[in-house]
Design a protein that fits this description.
TIM Barrel
Length: 539
């Protein structure tokens, strides 16, 4: 029977309350992946996306759970520098079909990902990667990895400075230390290891080796403070953090947030991070990306957006941190503009779409009270001032503008509300004067960064967000693919590319002379529960 054709005109007002159109964009049909028009609109104080495929009908989803927060974030929207030397050299590229990247892309790579393996020692049902499920083993060679690093570094006008080694579980590679060394050799200042931490927990000396090789941050899966919400590594977390503390590796906790599953523990996650701020540098909440086929009922049940995360944090921390304490990622572009004007060179810039991510910094005062940065810093005034000085530097002497800036910058900081053990004016001046990675690191070591990054899926897909993406995956074929095309359209990108550069499980097992499932981790819960560290961290 032929497929029923339907009108492409959206019918979003019927039975749903008053609708206020906001903007039009392009999206994808979740069933056939056809590019279709979509509309972003306001209804009942929230932001929604609706689209209609001529063959598969209408789709509607929550885009942003708070209209007022959306409009506040929208003020910080900022188009990036684009890519001067795109890998996809096509005259009329189409987004997202021609990702790799093309000249339509607006943001340089801020954080580059390299998948070093699709093997894993766990079998989590929502994982993007798992060799057994895929039917092949993907592990790029050292030569391929080096070439990917060099392709990233060749990006113009700004070469990426941060690399994340991911998987699968990257620590399963026996040559992972050599790969970390390679990242440093190729000029990446910040090397991040995305891991479940199991090997770090069980091999303290491995943590030392990882640190010595050049890892700055452990990007650690952490979905909750209880075994039910975090079955992946709940029992190992104490040993992971203890070994990282000894090795002096900073840790960012990364909870995947799913409505009705673990959203009730967001405040507890933050309190856990603050309690262990001597090793935990940040918490990056990630509202779930609902990839794969899903029913409308489950879509509605599990969907959670950045404002929803912020609301739960506000409620569960009794207002210690509120929705108003969060700012969208491109808020900090004014700092880049000022540094660029000082150095006369293009600099690293965070220009992701304003709806993609948000962040705040929490400072701990001497009395233990928690103070978000926006409570004692006029962020909007400071950023506006730095943008003004950046323009001024184009026509006035650098020394004169700098002296003026140094005298003025403290006026944006309320000394009475600032934590007693903090001199933020000095930290900011160091960042603006030194213009280097180490100066920025000083600020991170005195605070806890709390952020939320909502990666898209086929139901809330917005092509404008893809064009601004600054988190990318380097590929063995030379392409550099934005996160929300690489993972959201695996049949075009992730799975298709990895299968091309993979070997069968049988081939891998013959070469390694062992079965793939020997990697699977088997824990002794009673032993871990009775370890004194367990009470130290969870007690």
């Amino acid at each position: 029977m032929p497929k029923r054709k339907t009108s492409s005109k959206l019918n979003i007002e019927e039975g749903h309350g008053h609708v206020e159109p906001m903007r039009k964009t392009a999206s994808l049909c979740p069933k056939c992946l056809k590019t279709i028009s979509a509309e972003i609109f306001k209804r009942n104080g929230k932001v929604w996306i609706a689209k209609k495929c001529p063959e598969h009908g209408e789709f509607e989803d929550l885009y942003f759970g708070d209209y007022d927060m959306y409009k506040r974030f929208e003020k910080w929207a900022h188009a990036g520098k684009g890519i001067e030397n795109p890998v996809i050299d096509k005259e009329n590229p189409v987004c997202p079909q021609d990702c790799g990247m093309c000249k339509l892309h607006k943001s340089h790579t801020a954080l580059a990902n390299i998948v070093v393996t699709n093997r894993c020692d766990l079998t989590c049902f929502y994982c993007f990667f798992y060799a057994k499920a895929m039917g092949y083993v993907y592990e790029p060679t050292l030569d391929q990895i080096r070439q990917m690093l060099r392709t990233l570094k060749a990006q113009k006008p700004v070469e990426p400075n941060a690399i994340q080694l991911t998987g699968g579980e990257p620590t399963l590679r026996e040559d992972i230390i050599e790969i970390i060394d390679m990242c440093k050799e190729e000029g990446f200042d910040h090397v991040q290891l995305n891991t479940n931490g199991i090997r770090i927990a069980n091999e303290p000396e491995f943590a030392e080796r990882v640190k010595k090789a050049g890892v700055n941050t452990l990007y650690l899966s952490f979905d909750g403070v209880s075994p039910k919400t975090n079955p992946k590594n709940h029992w190992e977390i104490p040993k992971i953090l203890e070994n990282c503390k000894k090795a002096e590796i900073g840790v960012v906790l990364v909870p995947t947030v799913i409505n009705k599953i673990n959203d009730h523990e967001l405040g507890a996650i933050l309190k856990f991070a603050i309690k262990h701020i001597d090793v935990v540098r940040g918490v990056n909440f990630q509202p779930v990306s609902l990839v794969g086929r899903i029913t409308k009922a489950d879509l509605k049940k599990f969907r959670i957006t950045i404002p929803d995360v912020a609301e739960r944090i506000e409620k569960q921390t009794s207002g210690i941190i509120t929705k108003d304490d969060f700012y969208p990622v491109p808020t900090v572009t004014a700092i880049t503009h000022f540094v660029e004007a000082m150095s006369k060179k293009p600099k690293y810039e965070l220009t992701s779409h304003f709806a993609c991510g948000s962040a705040s910094y929490l400072f701990i005062d001497k009395d233990g009270s928690i103070i978000p940065i926006g409570r004692f810093v006029d962020i909007e005034g400071l950023m506006k001032y730095l943008d003004e000085k950046a323009v001024e530097l184009k026509s006035k002497p650098k020394g004169w503008v700098l002296l003026k800036m140094l005298a003025k910058i403290s006026s944006f900081i309320d000394k009475k509300k600032q934590p007693k053990n903090l001199n933020l004016t000095k930290l900011l001046i160091n960042v603006l004067k030194k213009k280097d990675y180490a100066a920025l690191g000083d600020m991170h070591h005195k605070s806890l960064m709390v952020s939320a990054m909502h990666f898209m899926d086929l139901y809330n897909y917005d092509v404008e967000r893809v064009k601004n993406c600054c988190i990318h995956y380097a590929q063995p074929d030379g392409r550099i693919v934005p996160f929300c095309t690489f993972n959201v359209i695996p049949e075009w990108y992730r799975d298709k590319i990895q299968k091309k550069y993979s070997i069968t499980i049988t081939q891998w097992e013959r070469r390694q002379k062992r079965k793939l499932n020997t990697d699977l981790y088997k824990r002794d819960i009673e032993k871990l529960k009775n370890d004194p560290l367990y009470n130290k961290y969870y007690g």
